[in-house]
Specification:
about 120 residues; alpha+beta; five-stranded mixed beta sheet; two-stranded antiparallel sheet; 2 helices; about 25% strand
Length: about 120
Amino acid sequence: MPKLTVEGVGEFEVPANKRLVLALVDEAGVDQLHACGGNARCTTCRVEFVAGEPQKMTQAEKELLAARALTGVRLSCQILCEQDMTVRVISRVAGSGRPGPGNRPADELHPQPVNWTSK
């Protein structure tokens, strides 16, 4: 099982291939935003990697980050926990002014079909 370290929160073992956004919510208990429900449309699930950043990303994540001119961040809804990683959560419900995190993302990656590309 991969180890997920969340800065300021702790270390957690997570099931292999679990979506990072769900691991942050379920295992780490973080109030991670995911306003679009984990469909790579809104960028509210942003995280910064401290260590263990995956070198692949979904085409949907790559296109959305480029369209919004975002650098140095990744979308937790588009990342699978396949290895040990350390992240800094930067998009939380607390302080966002939003009433909640958004609809719970599905267990599998969306949008389908999932196309992988290099980072």
